[in-house]
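From the methods appendix. Each design record in this collection lists the tokenized structure first, followed by the designed amino acid sequence. Records were kept in a plain field format so they could be parsed without special tools. The example shown here is representative of the layout used throughout.

RECORD:
FOLD TOKENS (402 positions):
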């Protein structure tokens, strides 16, 4: 006989773990199941490309809660377990063990799946993507003085791994299809700033290059690109990720670059919610649908879903936020700018301490503080306001007075 649960959460990352906590904090008394393909209990995944890579810390130190928290709060866990079928009509799901569960509500928190390269030699050892703790430990184990590391892709994960590997004494080459890195997220000028930061720390870049294959006997020994052959002891592929929506699709949910959900995280099936990387959610503040692949979004959407299930009225009404640490650069970004927005710099980039504003039609769409701290609230308050570039640049004017 199938086990029965009030709420089943599929995905035991930050979003899934937070959803469990939020439900219990809001007084939800129904039975809860938390299912995750990762064998570990929920942990803070941003630490994988930061603390684990830089310090070699144990991913277990980044756990959201101790293992005993879940049974103590009447949460049945299925870690190291995949869901193979979601039957929305009958409100049942099937695990890879063959076991069936029934549910009152489901929260989909499946996250995203890293893209891989379908090229010759891709099956060789020491070619990795970074998604979970196992990936992080495997990559970090290959960091040693003089090891040649090739990073394919210049997104956040690729650049953070490059910085960590260089810190460990590796020789790093980043392969880019186009230049500069992060152009699609930050635009050309700030992307170039990040490229120069990495170059100044000894990172090599191969630009305008396609990766065409890997070679080696058992483990990778070289990377073939359209710009030449690169020796490699370790390869990290960081070319983006896709929302893991197979279950949602098979269940008949509405899909468009993710699972379509309203401002309360409810999908086209009233008993199924989606949060985090897979949720294409209606943002009531920005009045548009967004799918955001950052931890802050997953945490806050989990709280919205828990609110909805328990009769609350929380909604998706905030600006996206993320941060990164690379070498001596620490930054925080808030808002939803595009690479085509106008860029306004407050301060001197060469000093390493400055603020970037993105504007469109005179209105601030996003802001980023670089090595300037405790200004997050002030920057968040400026998003959506019409402020001239001259005033944004004028450091004699306090941020609170713009």
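DESIGN:
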């Amino acid at each position: 006989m199938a086990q029965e649960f009030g709420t089943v959460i599929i995905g035991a990352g930050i979003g899934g773990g937070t959803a469990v906590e939020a439900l219990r904090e809001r007084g939800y008394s129904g039975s809860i199941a938390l299912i995750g393909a990762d064998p570990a209990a929920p942990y803070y995944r941003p630490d994988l490309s930061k603390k684990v890579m830089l310090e070699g810390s144990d991913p277990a130190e980044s756990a959201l809660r101790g293992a005993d928290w879940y049974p103590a709060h009447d949460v049945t866990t299925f870690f190291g377990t995949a869901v193979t079928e979601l039957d929305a009509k009958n409100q049942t799901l099937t695990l890879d063990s063959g076991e069936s569960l029934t549910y009152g509500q489901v929260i989909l928190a499946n996250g995203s799946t890293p893209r891989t390269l379908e090229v010759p030699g891709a099956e060789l050892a020491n070619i990795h993507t970074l998604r979970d703790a196992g990936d992080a430990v495997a990559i970090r184990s290959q960091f040693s003085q003089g090891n040649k590391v090739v990073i394919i892709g210049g997104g956040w994960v690729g650049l953070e791994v490059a910085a960590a590997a260089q810190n460990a004494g590796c020789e790093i080459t980043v392969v880019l299809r186009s230049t500069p890195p992060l152009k699609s997220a930050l635009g050309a000028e700030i992307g170039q700033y990040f490229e120069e930061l990495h170059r100044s720390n000894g990172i090599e870049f191969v630009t305008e290059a396609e990766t065409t294959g890997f070679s080696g006997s058992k483990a990778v020994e070289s990377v073939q690109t359209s710009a030449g052959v690169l020796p490699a002891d370790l390869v990290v592929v960081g070319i983006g990720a896709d929302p893991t929506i197979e279950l949602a699709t098979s269940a008949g949910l509405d899909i468009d670059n993710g699972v379509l959900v309203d401002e309360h995280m409810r999908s086209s099936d009233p008993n199924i919610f989606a949060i985090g990387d897979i949720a294409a959610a209606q943002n009531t503040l920005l009045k548009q649908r967004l799918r955001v692949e950052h931890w802050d979004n997953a945490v806050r959407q989990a709280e919205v879903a828990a609110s909805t299930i328990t009769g609350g009225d929380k909604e998706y009404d905030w600006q996206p936020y993320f941060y990164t640490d690379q070498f001596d650069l620490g930054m925080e970004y808030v808002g939803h700018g595009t690479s085509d927005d106008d860029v306004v710099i407050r301060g001197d980039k060469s000093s390493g301490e400055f603020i970037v504003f993105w504007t469109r039609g005179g209105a601030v769409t996003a802001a980023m503080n670089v090595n300037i701290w405790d200004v997050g609230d002030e920057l968040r308050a400026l998003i959506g306001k019409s402020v001239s570039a001259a005033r944004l640049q004028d450091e004699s004017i306090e941020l609170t007075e713009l």
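APPENDIX NOTE: The chain has three domains: 3-113+241-309, 116-237, 328-401.
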